[in-house]
Amino acid sequence: MSEKENYAIELRGITKRFPGIVANDNITLTLKRGEIHALLGENGAGKSTLMSILFGLYQPEEGEIYKDGRKVEISDPNVANELGIGMVHQHFKLVPCFTVLQNIILGVEPRRNGLLNMEEARARVTELSERYHLQVDPDARIEDITVGMQQRTEILKMLYRDNEILIFDEPTAVLSVQEIDELMQIMRGLAAEGKSLLFISHKLGEIMAVSDRCSVLRKGRCIGTVNTADTTPEELSAMMVGRNVSFHVDKKPANPGETVLEVRDLSVSGGRGKKDTVHRVSFQVRAGEIVCIAGIDGNGQSELIYGLTGLMPASEGSIRLAGQELVKESVRRRSLQGMSHIPEDRHKYGMVLDYSLEDNLVLQRYFEPRFMGPLGILKRDAIRSYADGLIEAYDIRSGEGAQSIVRGMSGGNQQKAVIAREIDRAPKLLITVQPTRGVDIGAIEMIHKELIRQRDQGMAILLVSLELDEVMDISDRILVMYDGELAGEFDPAAVTVEELGLYMTGARRQDARKEA
């Protein structure tokens, strides 16, 4: 069999245009049977668009798609599934009010005598979750589970359909280190079974660890395809952004000032009669320092942040920001008191997707006199000018600039927009959860430098991250959270990743919690 005959998928000369931008510009890409092929590129380079074309979500203006050497027309995702092509989306395609089980089987429900056979579906999902170490609660509603659990549901949804061509669009963005390692093993196992994988990732370490080949996109064009074993992370990053990128975060020792955030015995309820998800947590964050909360996803980090920001009510405890008690205050009141929040789920809590980019950039301050007149009429010229400044400063890329509808932007550029908006408000306290989720290596470098710069100017920063490299690189203090409580406090210069892992898994715990 020739190499060409061994191609499971061929994309030939694919071109896709959106208003103001050529998302894919004459791209040719091949996927061999049984290989893991990585797709690398900056935010907005066209990776997700290209994969969406393969999955039938978009139709190209030019180009052809071949599967197993035969030309195919993929008019919609149903056709893709019939052809054995599945996709795990970066932004989940889940029904929030449905259960995990209902989402997994949606569209391919097993039936017996014309009735839904939920027992058969449950048994199959349970078998898949155990086989691939993707434990989920099949009866939990999507709206009630963490982002990490939603990601597992997306993966199980694809595996349930027995697809041969598997597209993973940023599948590890919300997973813990242990979960990522497990997913890498799963991906290798799937390839060994003869399945062909396309893997979009910004994480060069993952690409080097799991892929056979890597294609690099830049500004809609394919720069080249390399054998992963024959390249280095430095070479790939230079191909991706067109310059050398620093992998090291340069920062001076912190010089903490007065306490900005003081949390005392804070508990947040799990809801519906469940025990507290966060139980009597106490800590401080001072001006001029970055305090990072580390932990495996699902140990109360999300609920802690929801309690601090007002998205969930605290069942007991105190939250003081610059001396002001906020535990009973609204989200807006906390914002006006000087709290900014970069949420883990930018779609649910960070943006209005059908608003323009400029309107999203003033969501927290549109009512200020500079943006709104005395009769409640928005000052469009002022909003446009302000948005243009942030777009340039943070390199936010979109087809129609400030007027772009946010829903049509890449995930990484959506993230940069949220970060720009929240930092530019010059808050007393910046709460940021997974700030580099889904952004490219160049944007990660920029975001880390900006967080350090804000710290050095006296901002208090509370960071939640599942990326241990990020935790170790930019934090000044590390708080480990396990099972809704703080398991320990550490100096990043005096602790190892392995030791942190023991506390994150509950194998160790400090007897007495340190006070800042």
Task: Spell out the blueprint of helices and strands.
Elements: E1 7-18, E2 21-32, E3 36-41, H1 47-54, E4 62-67, E5 70-72, H2 77-82, E6 85-88, H3 100-105, E7 111-112, E8 115-116, H4 118-131, H5 147-160, E9 165-169, H6 177-192, E10 196-200, H7 204-210, E11 213-218, E12 221-227, H8 233-241, E13 259-269, E14 276-286, E15 290-294, H9 301-309, E16 314-321, E17 324-325, H10 331-336, E18 339-342, H11 346-350, H12 357-361, H13 380-393, H14 411-424, E19 429-433, H15 441-456, E20 460-464, H16 468-474, E21 477-482, E22 485-490, H17 497-504
Parallel strand pairs: 3-10, 3-11, 6-9, 9-10, 15-20, 15-21, 18-19, 19-20
Antiparallel strand pairs: 1-2, 1-4, 4-5, 7-8, 11-12, 13-14, 13-16, 16-17, 21-22
Structure characterization notes:
There is one protein chain. The chain has 516 residues and is α/β, with parallel strands linked by helices. The protein has helices spanning 47-54, 77-82, 100-105, 118-131, 147-160, 177-192, 204-210, 233-241, 301-309, 331-336, 346-350, 357-361, 380-393, 411-424, 441-456, 468-474, 497-504, and strands spanning 7-18, 21-32, 36-41, 62-67, 70-72, 85-88, 111-112, 115-116, 165-169, 196-200, 213-218, 221-227, 259-269, 276-286, 290-294, 314-321, 324-325, 339-342, 429-433, 460-464, 477-482, 485-490. Strands 6-9-10-3-11-12 form a six-stranded mixed β-sheet, sandwiched between helices.
